Amino acid sequence: MQPAKSLESNRNPLPTPKQTTSYPSDLLTPSEIEQLRKEMREADDYFQKAFAAKKPKFL
Predict the structure, then answer these.
(1) Where are the alpha helices (DSSP H) in 1-29?
(2) What is the pLDDT, as a whole number, of residue 42?
(3) CA 42 to CA 5: how far, in whole Å?
(4) Which pLDDT belongs to residue 36?
(5) Start-to-end CA span in the chain (Å)
(6) Chain segment 5-36, per-residue pLDDT in tens
(7) How far, in Å, are 6, 8, 18, 34, 47 from residue 11 at the CA level?
(8) 2 pLDDT above the threshold of 60
(9) Confidence band (pLDDT; 50, 70, 90) for 59?
(10) 30 vs 21: CA distance, rounded Å
């Protein structure tokens, strides 16, 4: 009976994957980014007003 070879010795090192992730700022124009920021501010203002009355007293 022959000794079992380790699985580690049979494996070749895997190549390092290249980064394919891009950032949203690389894909959007400055005006699109500004529009998204504006929409976020408007949504934040809306929710601040909508939930102001429902804020628990301990906060």
Answers:
(1) 7-10, 24-27
(2) 97
(3) 64
(4) 95
(5) 72
(6) 555 555 676 677 676 667 765 788 999 999 99
(7) 9, 5, 21, 49, 55
(8) no
(9) low
(10) 20
State which H helix or E strand residue 2 sits in. Answer: none
How far is residue 30 from each of residues 16, 21, 22, 34, 49, measured CA to CA in Å? Answer: 33, 20, 16, 6, 29
Query: Token match 């394919």: residue?
Result: 20
Q: How far apart are CA 14 and CA 5, in angstroms?
A: 20
Q: How many Cβ atoms from other residues are within 10 Å of residue 59's Cβ?
A: 4
**Tokens (6 digits) for 21:** 């992730």
47 and 40 Cβ atoms separated by less than 8 Å: no
pTM for the full predicted model: 0.48
- How far is 23 from 29, CA to CA, in rounded Å? 12
